[in-house]
Amino acid sequence: MVTLVARQSIMIKCNMQTSALLGNYEFYYAAGLFCRLRGILVEEDIQPVALKEKLLPELKAYQGTDEKEQYLAEMLLKYEPSEEYTEQMKELLRWGLGEERIWQVN
Question: Which has the closest alpha carbon to 96: 26, 29, 47?
């Protein structure tokens, strides 16, 4: 259930371009989605701070034309992950990496 809520939250935030990431669960799904969109390879069991550090150069350089992708990048850039890590975050990262229904809220 947590994974579905985190996914839907990111979709709504990017569609409406409102709010910010509210925790590592949203961060992991959003990071996976950004990696999918940008073709970034990432290990599934990467820890939160390491994930942010890996994405940081790409996030800073991102100049997308799609407003949803741009908002996703902005949210990720502003977010400071905590050290908290659970198996559900790994699941959310995988879901984002394999997302097929981008920007669709179910």
Answer: 29
99 contacts: CB under 8 Å, gap ≥ 6? 32, 33, 36
Per-residue pLDDT of the chain (106 residues; tens, 9 = 90+): 578 899 999 999 999 998 999 999 999 999 999 999 999 999 999 999 999 999 999 999 998 889 999 999 999 999 999 999 999 999 999 999 999 988 887 6
CA dihedral 18, 106, 33, 92 (to 10 degrees): 110
The Cβ-side half-sphere exposure at 35, using a 13 Å CA radius, reads: 23
Residue 66 gets the label, from left (phi > 0), alpha (psi -120 to 50) or beta, of beta
**14 close to 5: Cβ distance less than 8 angstroms:** no
